[in-house]
């Protein structure tokens, strides 16, 4: 349990010209068309996998009104993004170390004022992300599910979009809807797909192909330009995941040899290569 006060290990702003010259973080939005696909589980464990490879990582809970990253990580913050927005604390005071060696910026849950994106919240969220980006190698935005204005604005601030889906028909339908909206309203022409709860090897590739075929048929003709979906990876169905979630622990911390853990590490390696290739 933490008292909400970040220790000295939380990254501070660059102190010299050499560090100041480092490129800002690659910002990745982890989103989904529907809830219950394991988006927050992926975001947290992916951050741990990136940290294990020496990356400075921040996970920002961008599900402003229905936050649950604190539950997944078994954290009890006294200060949240809400307190930063309202001026009750500084950004540094709200940054917390998480199990797994990364940093988190948690949001409050049940905040009805964040159910819609107001100009004030828009400006505050942009300010926070702009301020933290130079301190890290990766900033992961754990967004809400669906296509609300809050979700879409958070995604608009990211360099990359990772759409998490499961092989279930309802998940695929909602993933397609999300991809369509991002392509038509934000001009996204490249998005990454991460298939969670894959039931057999190669199912992620099949899901990506199915989504790409539907996008090519129904979205691309109206845009006049291709929309490409890349498979970032697949995470298999693994009983160890449910056990870790119930215990409110990171799977990579408690069962690093589990099939799902190995898959998440592979995803992190691909994400690093992708980010480094765009610096």
From TrEMBL:
<dbReference type="InterPro" id="IPR027417">
    <property type="entry name" value="P-loop_NTPase"/>
</dbReference>
<dbReference type="InterPro" id="IPR050625">
    <property type="entry name" value="ParA/MinD_ATPase"/>
</dbReference>
<dbReference type="InterPro" id="IPR033875">
    <property type="entry name" value="FlhG"/>
</dbReference>
<keyword id="KW-0547">Nucleotide-binding</keyword>
<feature type="domain" description="CobQ/CobB/MinD/ParA nucleotide binding">
    <location>
        <begin position="29"/>
        <end position="249"/>
    </location>
</feature>
<keyword id="KW-0067">ATP-binding</keyword>
<protein>
    <submittedName>
        <fullName>Cobyrinic acid a,c-diamide synthase</fullName>
    </submittedName>
</protein>
<dbReference type="InterPro" id="IPR025501">
    <property type="entry name" value="MinD_FleN"/>
</dbReference>
<dbReference type="Pfam" id="PF01656">
    <property type="entry name" value="CbiA"/>
</dbReference>
<dbReference type="InterPro" id="IPR002586">
    <property type="entry name" value="CobQ/CobB/MinD/ParA_Nub-bd_dom"/>
</dbReference>
<feature type="region of interest" description="Disordered">
    <location>
        <begin position="1"/>
        <end position="23"/>
    </location>
</feature>
